[in-house]
Write a structure and sequence with these properties.
By secondary structure, this protein is of the alpha/beta class.
Length: 446
């Protein structure tokens, strides 16, 4: 499929919308408070365009990185999967910074006065800016990533930063935290920038697609999927489709890898799926197939949800092994399909997305099989899943449907009825404000 796309066109459109919204924010404060904005006011810093909009014009300038120009359409959720689609888009998860910014402009409790704000949002496209260090000409200067932003925050209205020394600031970083965590002293650079290692930003809350275990300021939020409904009717229609889907496959794995000679969990999954032929033993569960692999090698599934959603809708369980890092976008794709996630380590979700999926809930909607048991101790994944009673599987699937709104990002400009359901963005903003509040309280008693 060929996308017709002109970077200056989307830049102009985005600029007009963002400028209009900033003008609204810096106007007068609303007289009424219909959304009960107590302790919820947010001030958006008006950053110069080199920190956000100008970065969009470089969307095709990284030879060893994919051209991401097509996926800037619709403010970062990408083009529609087809012309008649109302909810499905070819979303690139690394464009979440653009979409998050767009959604922030719809936040009902914006204030032009930073002194009134419970939190200050930095609309800095840090992930897009990192590309010049990761894939561009400035790879040897990766320790400098973010220093120009800090210089601006200290020079432009410095009291906003100095009021709480950055503790009340937060930003969205649409990559795993590891991509921003290279030690400042690493020479020569290996991988990543040093943004999260800069002492200047130690106080800022960073929302990332995957967090590390120890830094207090990092918090993982769900990867965006391709599903962004604009109204409640379309969302509920999808729920009904998922609920009535006929589950004829016990488990699917959508991904690549597993072909290396060394033992690893993806190789074990691939070997077991390819060698599982005993369909007769599955008759009690009404399955026609035990396991299926959806080949997503070389990123062929990333912008094409049709490749994997059809099979996920047919499966009871979706296998979610770690890859280069513990987390996967596929976890959230599977949840959207009503497919019960099967994890192989807690860092893949349980210790990551604590705002959106509480740790005590995981046994209700997911299965954990330790990867060491599968790779080294002979535990068979299909045997473990077969032992789960049919009624328990149905109950778990209902819990998956219940948590679905919390991990999806509804479309910008969505209906008021759909806005009544908190989505991944709403929960992320609430969590950031709560984290800031708790941190400021701790500092006040020190």
């Amino acid at each position: 499929m060929t996308f017709k796309f002109t970077p200056p066109t989307i830049l102009l459109t985005v600029s007009i919308v963002f400028a209009s919204a900033f003008a609204h924010q810096f106007g007068s404060k609303p007289v009424s408070d219909p959304f009960n904005c107590t302790n919820k006011w947010i001030h958006i810093r008006n950053l110069p365009s080199p920190f956000n909009l100008d970065l969009l014009t470089n969307c095709s300038e990284y030879p060893i990185y994919d051209d991401f120009c097509p996926y800037l359409e619709n403010y970062g959720i990408g083009p529609k999967t087809h012309n008649r689609s109302h909810s499905w888009y070819r979303t690139d998860p690394y464009m979440l910074e653009v979409f998050f910014h767009r959604r922030m402009l719809e936040y009902p409790c914006l204030t032009p006065n930073p002194a009134d704000a419970a939190g200050v949002f930095l609309p800095y496209y840090s992930g897009l800016d990192s590309l010049r260090y990761l894939y561009g000409p400035e790879v040897n200067s990766s320790a400098e990533h973010g220093l120009n932003l800090f210089e601006f925050l200290q020079q432009d209205s410095p009291r906003i930063w100095e009021r709480n020394h950055g503790h009340d600031h937060f930003l969205m970083m649409a990559r795993p935290a590891w991509d921003f965590s290279q030690s400042i002293d690493t020479d020569p650079p290996i991988w990543g920038t040093s943004f999260l290692e800069l002492p200047e930003f130690f106080n800022v809350t960073a929302l990332t697609l995957e967090s590390r275990a120890w830094p207090w300021q990092e918090q993982a939020i769900p990867y965006p999927t391709s599903f962004h409904p604009p109204n409640l009717d379309l969302f509920e229609s999808w729920i009904r489709r998922v609920r009535r889907a006929r589950r004829t496959i016990m488990a699917v794995f959508a991904g690549g890898g597993g072909v290396a000679a060394t033992p690893n969990i993806r190789r074990s999954i691939r070997d077991e799926c390819e060698n599982t032929t005993a369909v007769g033993s599955l008759s009690d569960h009404s399955y026609e197939k035990a396991c299926e692999i959806i080949d997503c090698s070389n990123g062929i599934c990333q912008h094409d949800p049709i490749r994997y959603m059809k099979q996920m809708l047919k499966a009871s369980f979706c296998l979610q092994p770690p890859g280069d890092t513990p987390t996967r976008r596929s976890t959230f794709d599977g949840i959207l399909a009503g497919c019960i996630p099967v994890f192989f380590e807690e860092q893949s979700a349980k210790s990551q997305y604590t705002w959106h999926l509480e740790e005590e809930e995981y046994e209700d909607f997911s299965v954990l099989i330790k990867k060491e048991d599968v790779v080294f101790n002979g535990v068979r994944i299909m045997d473990v899943l077969m032992e789960i009673p049919r009624e328990e599987v149905r109950r778990m699937r209902e819990r998956v449907l219940e948590i679905m709104p919390r991990i999806m990002y509804r479309r910008h400009g969505s209906s008021l009825a759909l806005r009544s359901k908190k989505d991944a963005f709403d929960i992320a903003v609430e969590g950031a404000l709560q984290k800031i509040k708790s941190r400021l309280r701790e500092l006040s008693v020190q």
